[in-house]
Amino acid sequence: MEQAISVFCYANTDRQSSEHWESAVCVVRLFSSGFCLAVCAEDRAVLSLERYAFVPNLSVEEKIAAIEKACGQQHRACSRAVFQLYTTCNTQIPEAFYVENLNKSIADLLTSRSKEYVPVAEKINGGDMYNLSLWNADLYKKVKETFPNYELKTTIGALLEKVSVREPQAESLVFVEDNNFTILARNAKGLLACNSFAFETEADFLYYCLCFLRKFYPNAELVPLVFCGNITEQSSLFTAVKKYVAKVELMEKSGFDLFVNYHYYCDII
Known about the structure:
The protein has seven helices and 14 strands. By secondary structure, it is α/β, with parallel strands linked by helices. It folds into three domains: 4-85, Nucleotidyltransferase, domain 5 (2-Layer Sandwich); 90-158, no CATH class; 166-264, Protein of unknown function DUF3822, C-terminal domain (Nucleotidyltransferase, domain 5, 2-Layer Sandwich). The relative contact order is 0.13.
């Protein structure tokens, strides 16, 4: 029985030569309900893109085995490989204050269940900070064993790097992952705050978004809100927020305009 079902598959037939793949980056993004496998060329053109949904009730070992099988089917060697995970427990530390030996102590402050997790720090390119995230210990061990040559990243870390190259301005970015989302606030001087929330209903989502925005902006309803991840303009979440915020949009396509729902896959690779 297949552990993961393919729900989307694309191959760029015009760019399948070995020269394109040898300088490409392969990115695995793990979601709670599935995963995406993307291969992008140096110029960010998509060479290959696949999205899979997990069958119900898989163990960590079974999920990683399904990802390993999908990666093996590529039969290609890329110059760089990244394993990207959506993490719900994170904190940002200014580079000047980061001390690796304190990672465990910080994890103990973030959750009373810190023994179940492994703290992983990633340097945010262009951001003068580290993102310290907590990975499930069993998952972290299995990923390290199965993908020893992959760079470990988080979706939130990738989002922070994306922000570092955007024009400085007051805006909020939201990444949606199934029934979790991360929201980030910034202004012309830089990052103000970043937080993650779990939600069950549209009302929950709207409440957490608006409360977060009102903490950091005197006129929160006028601050542009930029969405990426598992959301479309037609979704009830998107339309609900538009009733309260004047400017709501999806993140720019960044070269992935071949895909109607590009933001599901590789908007922040």
